[in-house]
Amino acid sequence: MLKDRVKLGEIDKYIDKDVYVYGWLEDKRIVGQVAFLVLRDMTGKVQVTVKKSVKRHLYTHALTIPRQSILKVHGKVNLYGETIEIVPHDIQVLSEAKHPLPIDPTGRVPANLPTIIDNRPLSLRIPTIRAVFQLRALTKQVIREFFINNGFVEVDTPKIIATATEGGANLFEIKYFDRVAYLAQSPQLYKEQLTMGFDGVFEIAQFYRAEKSHTRRHLTEFTSVDLEVAFADYNDVMDILEEMIKYILTEIHKRGKPYLEILGHTPPEPPTSMKRITYDEALEIIRSKGGEIKWGEDIESEGLEKLAEELPGFYFIVDWPWDIKPFYIMRKGDLTESFDLMMGRLELSSGGTREHRYNELRRNIREKGLNVESFDYHTRFYQYGMPPHAGFGLGLDRLMTILSGRENIREVVLYPRDPESLTP
Ligand code: AMO
Questions:
Q1: Close Cβ partners of 346 (under 8 Å, ≥ 6 residues apart)
Q2: Claim to verify: residue 306 and residue 400 sit in the same structural domain
Q3: Which side of the chain, N or C, has fewer Cβ within a 10 Å radius?
Q4: Ligand 1 centre and the CA of 235: distance in Å?
Q5: Whose CA is nearest to atom 20 of ligand 1?
Q6: Per the domain annotation, does 126 fall within a domain?
Q7: Whether residue 70 sits in one domain with residue 139
Q8: Is the CB of 221 under 6 A from ligand 1?
Q9: End residue of a domain, out of 42, 64, 99
Q10: Tens digits of pLDDT across the chain (424 residues)
Q11: Same-domain check for residues 70 and 170
């Protein structure tokens, strides 16, 4: 099949030749004694012209084929004026489409998001929806390229784990034979361990958070882009993250053009620099705009909105209080060497310098009210020469909403998982 198949996007190279083409019947018109079938595949479309006077049985057959059925057409490519058409020798229905379809795959009749997600594979026939996922694949490729160009090693860490990494509140518990295990919330502890052997590691993978959040930016299964670098601190990894964002934006503007055109969206231009404000400065801005926030609290939606009025593009909030950061972050007094990367009001990434000293790490675990022994499998390595290290985790799905101009995180994930949906 693949060897014979001519893609419709390349049909113009086959004028006057006999070809086999495959696709779905997008449209069908009868004008006088001629049936015009519009055949589409992932790459383009072509008109198949069946004249009653030339091929009576094919014409009669064509009239009966339901739209969206999958066809194999054997025919001759013909230039008719400006139009490329196929004059068929044979039309085979490989898979007939049942009607009515749950959504209109041409996109002419708009469907709401739950219906689109419920019918994801079929929705991919709508060019704007397909473009989102083509852009997503390109973005992952560009991110990989950036990391590899900078000498980082791609790793895979387990998703079934024995203890919490990001705190116990939003852990999915699973039955692991006769024991309890959890789904990983992030690769945090593993990526840190791996800086014992690699200068820098990265992972792009799905992670799990049992958060009952019903926002346009939370999922229970999300894709995280993680980096961890040896002999680095949080300023170093903010520099890397900034370079990565600029590289992604530059490449997406160039290589993503065909998809962005279909989407009718222009992502932000690569910024020349990204401002770094401290948590204390962020609080000042929020308060100056009438927001109420106590020192030591996390910055919630309302505060982030106020900050975004002042800082509409990419910026970092650095030096968060120790009380609201996880045990693995490097402490400096009441503060930590930590950061969040924001794009307007949306948190895209967080990271920081890590605690690499054995005794201090164990003390921090205890201070966070966690059972230090249950982390022995991890902390023991810190006795054998753990380099200072730093890293970040970036939410790929959130980044994709910015790049594709979609409002809801569920629009940029093929099969999104949230507290309500576990299918399709
Ligand atoms: P954090 O918990 O801030 O940090 O997660 C990092 C980034 O991942 C994305 N993210 C999510 N996206 C969609 N749905 C969710 N439920 C969700 N949760 C998180 C966000 C967020 O900024 N281990 C640290 C990172 C590090 O320090 O290296 C961590 O997981 O974009």
A1: 217, 304, 398, 401, 402
A2: yes
A3: N
A4: 19
A5: 395
A6: yes
A7: no
A8: no
A9: 99
A10: 889 999 999 999 999 999 999 999 999 999 999 999 999 999 999 999 999 999 999 999 999 999 999 999 999 999 999 999 999 999 999 999 999 999 998 888 999 999 999 999 999 999 999 999 999 999 999 999 999 999 999 999 999 998 877 777 799 999 999 999 999 999 999 999 999 999 999 999 999 999 998 999 999 999 999 999 999 999 999 999 999 999 999 999 999 999 999 999 999 999 999 999 999 999 999 999 999 999 999 999 999 999 999 999 999 999 999 999 999 999 999 999 999 999 999 999 999 999 999 999 999 999 999 999 999 999 999 999 999 999 999 999 999 999 999 999 999 999 999 999 888 8
A11: no
Same domain, 71 and 219: no
**Residue minimizing CA distance to atom 24 of ligand 1:** 393
Ligand 1 atom at shortest distance from the alpha carbon of 338:
27
Q: How far does Cα 226 stand from its chain's mean position?
A: 13
Query: How many angstroms separate the CA atoms of 213 and 311, rounded?
Result: 25
Q: Are residues 95 and 138 in the same domain?
A: no
Whether 222 and 356 map to the same domain: the answer is yes
Ligand 1 neighbour 393 (Cβ under 6 A)? yes
Whole-number Å distance between alpha carbons of 338 and 351: 6
Q: Which domain holds residue 76?
A: 8-99
To test the ligand 1 pocket, which listed residue (194, 215, 224, 337) has its Cβ within 8 A of the most ligand atoms?
224
For residues 91 and 200, membership in a common domain is answered with no
Give the chain's domain count.
2
User: With a 6 A CB cut-off, is 350 part of the ligand 1 pocket?
Assistant: yes
Sign of the CA dihedral with 293 first, then 171, 389, and 238 last: negative
Neighbours of 136 (CB within 10 A): 21
- Torsion sign over Cα 237, 239, 245, 247: negative
The residue contributing the CA closest to ligand 1 atom 10 is 395
Q: 178 CA distance to ligand 1 centroid (A)?
A: 30
Distance CA 110, CA 115 (A): 10
Give the DSSP H/E element, type plus range, for residue 188.
helix 188-193
- Identify the residue whose C-alpha is closest to ligand 1 atom 8: 395
d(CA 187, CA 206): 10
Query: Taking the CA atoms of the chain, what radius of gyration do you get in angstroms?
Result: 27
- Residue 39 belongs to domain with CATH number: 2.40.50.140
Assigned domain for 1 exists: no
Strand, helix or coil for residue 242? helix
Q: Please, what is the Cα angle at 193 between 189 and 197, to 5 degrees?
A: 155
